[in-house]
Amino acid sequence: MSSGGQPEIATFAAGCFWGVEHIFLKHFPPVENKGILKTTVGYTGGKEDAKNPDYRTVCTGATDHAEAVRIEFDPSIVKYDELVEFFYRIHDPTTKNQQGNDVGTQYRSAIFYHSPEQLEIAKRVTEEVQKKHFDPHGTKIVTELVPAGEWWNAEEYHQKYLHKNPTGYQCPNHRLHW
After folding, report:
1. pTM for this one?
2. Which of 64, 134, 136, 171 is deepest in the core (most CB within 10 A)?
3. What per-residue string of b and e applies to 22-57 under the rule 16 or more CB within 10 Å gives b?
4. Which of 19, 57, 15, 8 is nearest to 143 (CA)?
């Protein structure tokens, strides 16, 4: 565990939360002690008056919430900058409010930072990834960097959905891009 013995939280939105959670767990399986301790899918980044949203309401776009993954991790094993870089590898951060055929504000690309240090790391990694992977193609990262706000867990059937339903829908953008 970190020097303070406390896990940290990282929150990412990169399209349908099923695929985002699945690929993080595939590459950082908790049973293999690769740094991710726990994941939860849910909703964040919405309107202040949109309390306790559910999947159907979020899908209407009326709440402005993003489908997101909240990752509890051990920073002595995996650093936040590694998770941010991996986040960029697993989706297309150049499309606004869309991943593949999934379109809407709930599918936006966003990093919800939990501290000023996370913001600085997210800015640095975003600049590095932009320069190395997107400038050569003339494309621009549109990922939002926003403070983490209120979080609501998604309904239980969404949690680890693709582990429970291996043939379930997975956005084709959720793969390693480099």
Report:
1. 0.95
2. 171
3. bbbbeebeeeeeebbbebbbbbbbbeeebeebeeee
4. 15
What's the CA gap between 132 and 127, in Å, rounded?
Answer: 9
Q: How far is CA 97 from the centre of its chain?
A: 13
3-state helix, strand, coil in the chain (%, to 5): 35, 20, 45
Local confidence pLDDT in tens for the 178 residues of the chain? 544 579 999 999 999 999 999 999 999 999 999 999 999 999 999 999 999 999 999 999 999 999 999 999 999 999 999 999 999 999 999 999 999 999 999 999 999 999 999 999 999 999 999 999 999 999 999 999 999 999 999 999 999 989 899 888 888 889 999 9
Q: Are 176 and 89 in contact (CB under 8 A)?
A: yes
Tokens linked to 157: 């059937």
Examine the residue annotation and report whether 171 is marked as an active-site residue of this protein.
Answer: no
